[in-house]
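ok trying again, last paste got cut off:
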Amino acid sequence: MKNIVRSLEDIVNLAPILKAAFPYDLSVAVCDTEKFLVYYPGDSIDLGISAGQIIHADEPLYHALKNDEYSRANVPKEYYGYEFVGTVLPVHGEDERVCGAVCIQVRRQTELREIADRMTLSLNQANARIVQVADGSNQLADFSQKLLAQSETTAASVQKSDDVLAVLRKVADQTHLLGINAAIEAAHAGEKGRGFDIVAREIRKFSQETEQSAQRIRDTLREIQTAMKGIGQSIGQIASVGQEQAASTEEMSSFIQEIRAMSEQLNQFAQKL
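nice, full thing came through this time. structure:
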């Protein structure tokens, strides 16, 4: 369809009105077939075009005018420091020949996409770290449970040692009684029982040493029992903390997944701008 105008002057006069009517920040240029007539830059997009600037043959605008074609192109960031969409709409005189064009440039929201991309990257990295922490917390909880079971087994084994000590003390008591009886018999035997009396004293001495050793072992085992009880409580607390930490990291990971999904939606929205 031909876009016929009486003169380019009408388009020139309409350009600032057209720019003000759009709800987006954009720049507008009007040209004839050889040069730019006017250029109205936007707040965030300014291509530095000036009135009278010649249109070069290597510009997309030149080809759009020559071929009488509507043109829409994405101009990459490398040219002006930011990305924008440029459109060229050829206009025709009353003889239906191309007499110029209206050019509009709208800056694309690449910054928004870059922010969304950085958010996604950071969230992916954070989620990976949280997964590692969660795995470590689960392993810590499992290891703590094993340690707790082992400490309970050890405590039970120490408890059984009391039975051994009871037997040892009984032996010491019997030995002591035997030494007393032997001393009595030696006294009855008089001079002939003197050697037997020496044996009786040694038996009583051995009984006392056995009782003392049993007492020291009993004290040591009680200390071990107290220590094992404290270790068991500490391990139980570690296991509880590990489980709570694992649950918290799983909740954080779920929350990050939601934020990442929102950042991806933000990126998709930015792609349309």
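cool. The two ends are 27 Å apart (CA to CA). The mean pLDDT is 76.
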